[in-house]
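Training component of the fellowship. As part of building independent skills, the fellow (R.M.) carried out the full modelling exercise for a liganded target. The chosen ligand was farnesyl diphosphate. The inputs are recorded below so that the supervisory panel can assess the work.
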Amino acid sequence: MTAPRDPTALPRHVAIIMDGNGRWAKQRGLPRLAGHEAGARAVKRVTTHARKLGLGALTLYAFSEQNWGRPTAEVDGLMKLLGHYIVAERAEILDHDIRFSTIGDVERLPRPLQDAIADLKQASSQNRGMDFCIALSYGGREELLRAARAAAAACVAGELSPDALDEATFERLLYTSHLPPLDLLIRTSGEVRISNFLLWQCAYAELVFTPVCWPDFGETDLDDAIARFQGRERRFGLTPDQLPN
Ligand code: FPP
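Fellow's submitted model of the complex:
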């Protein structure tokens, strides 16, 4: 369709619900894991393109808290794939000044994957070209509960007064405190729901849904989503007349 219309008005932070790997595989008579492998190739394609475009941050929903309930073989296959990806893409990430991070309960992940994540986070921590964040064992409700518990604990310890708990303070307790505000959420595969992803952060994000299954998602699809974002009027509760030109 169209290229991003205005390279100076890019979303600061794009998040993607990478959906449709299983259906993509089924349509081709392949096992579900082949869909996830093709999905990993799409991750590389889209991350490289996001960096070229100059996005500030890209967050990908790779594994939800609820995904632990999938068949063991699929969970194990996904864990292996994620581990392989992090090791294989390490040099590429570092060479392109990308800061790697994760959101979610990474302590539930297999130890070798945790170690690979910790290593890449540390090695890339000074990079500023783009934030690349993977949501792993992540749930939006779980993230909010974790932050609420931390705030309550700070109140009990006398370090925080309940009245001083404002949006900025609460945001610092979220997994995403190191990332810019979420401007655009994309979901692939035609499903139209948020599925427990970035519930707080989505408050004023623009939502773009595309029928393309994640393994087929490419550079043009990201360009199209950004063009749709740029065509939206973001009012943040104000009237059109109150908005700056
Ligand atoms: C949702 O599609 C996708 C997932 C639960 C896994 C996403 C994982 C990848 C894209 C591969 C590895 C990721 C990285 C970051 C290297 P689904 O399986 O629910 O698809 P379906 O709804 O068609 O069954």
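The panel noted the following from the submitted structure. The first strand starts at residue 13 and ends at 17. Residues 36 and 198 are 22 Å apart (CA to CA).
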